[in-house]
C-alpha cells in the first residue's frame, strides 16, 4: 500500500513592502512522502513571494508538483485558463523548464541546496534563450533553517523588503536572501 501525502496547514501573514501587499492567507500543503521539510518550506516561501494581491487574474495554487510530472509546484491560471505563473522548486531537468516556458507567461524557479551551483552551471547555457524564466538560488543554510519552521500547523509571518525576506513564527525567525541567477531583460 502506497504511503499517502501528509497534510500541512499554514496561516501566512504577509507584509511585502516591495509589492505593497499586506494580506493573510490560509493554505493547505500536501507533503509527498518523498519530499523533505526543506523542499516543502521553499514551496511555501515561493507562494508567499508570488501570491497576487487579488484573484482578478486567477489565484496562485499549489499544484501536484512532485506527484505529477505534468504540473509544477505552484501555478496561477487566468480566469480564461491560460497559465500566468509556473513555479518550480529544486533542480528540474532543463527540458521541463523549456516546456513550461512554452506553456506559461512567466516561469519561476527556486533552487536550493549546497549542490545548486553545480546544477546551475550545467544547465545555464541551455536556458539563456528563455525570456520568461526567472531563477533564484537560496543559500543552503537558509533553506535548511526554513525547514526547522515546518510543522503540521503553522502560523508564519513573512516580511519582504528590498529583496530580503524574513519568515518566522512566535519562537524564531529566518532571514532569506534569494540570489538571482537569471532574470529576463524585460519586466513581467
From TrEMBL:
- Source organism superkingdom: Bacteria
Pfam families linked to this entry: YaeQ
Q: Where does the record place a coiled coil?
A: none
What protein name does the entry list? YaeQ family protein
